[in-house]
Amino acid sequence: MLENQCTSMKDLQKIHAHLLKTGLANDTVAASRILAFSASPAGDINYACMVFRHIKEPNPFIWNTIIRGFSESQNPKTAISLFTEMLVASEIEPQRLTYPSVFKAYAQDGLAKIGAHHGRVIKSGLERDKFIRNTIIHMYGNFGFLSEARELFDENLECDNVAWNSMAMGLSKCGEVSEFKRLFDKMPSRNSVSWNSMISGFVRNGKYAEALDLFGKMQMERIRPSEFTMVSLLNASAQPGAIGQGEWILEYIKKNGIQTNGIVVTAIINMYCKCGRASKRLFAFFTLP
């Protein structure tokens, strides 16, 4: 039923009620399935927490599931608290799949300076695990701890795109534009995230011409831009004298059917307002087919 008939929390609650009535809710496998759905993006993390608290002896899968759910929620600090609880109050040891969620929660909550149990990973012999290493690099790079990130990232090793992108984004956020560009040029392979990050990095550091030039190269390599690319380019156009460039970008958005979500719309409004062309131009854009 959970696999074939459960597509929403309403469905889940009906099944869960049936399990409670029959006593099957005490079965670890059934409870873990209920927990997994409620901790997923389609579920309700608070409901997941309630389910978790009623499981008497959580196994590693159950701990990993609830920690991961909170690390991806609006309250990542709870993931850190649950991880600490697992270490202190249970006999379950962290596993390979536990740490990425923990480091992600630290990065979300802005607590990279704590070290985030990095030493525990080293003692466990998991530091070279690619999945774990990538999340630690992202955590350190996201908050400007570049020396710590560089200790883990070695461009001469066989790092994947996630590690390269995380390191590059960290350099960009710290204003290390030349180093960021050098790393981008040296990437063994570049995906859309790499290009978007580079364009965003140029815009963030006031390198608007470089951002537009890179967008041209991105088109030449037939990499389809996302709405995030467009937001960066619109932000680059939100300056006096750049309205022509901004309207070219708007035409590109319409012509290529790029999704205009709330973030894109906000960037469009911001661009027109800063260029002093807010009223008629905005009306024309949002009313044209």
Please explain how this structure is put together.
With 289 residues, the protein is mainly alpha-helical. It folds into three domains: 1-109; 122-189, no CATH class; 191-288, Alpha Horseshoe (Serine Threonine Protein Phosphatase 5, Tetratricopeptide repeat). It has 17 helices and no strands. The chain has helices at 9-22, 28-38, 45-53, 60-71, 76-89, 99-109, 118-123, 130-142, 146-152, 161-173, 177-186, 192-204, 208-220, 227-236, 243-255, 262-275, 279-287. Helix 1 runs antiparallel to helix 2, helix 10 packs antiparallel against helix 11 (177-186) and helix 12 (192-204) runs antiparallel to helix 13. The mean pLDDT is 84.
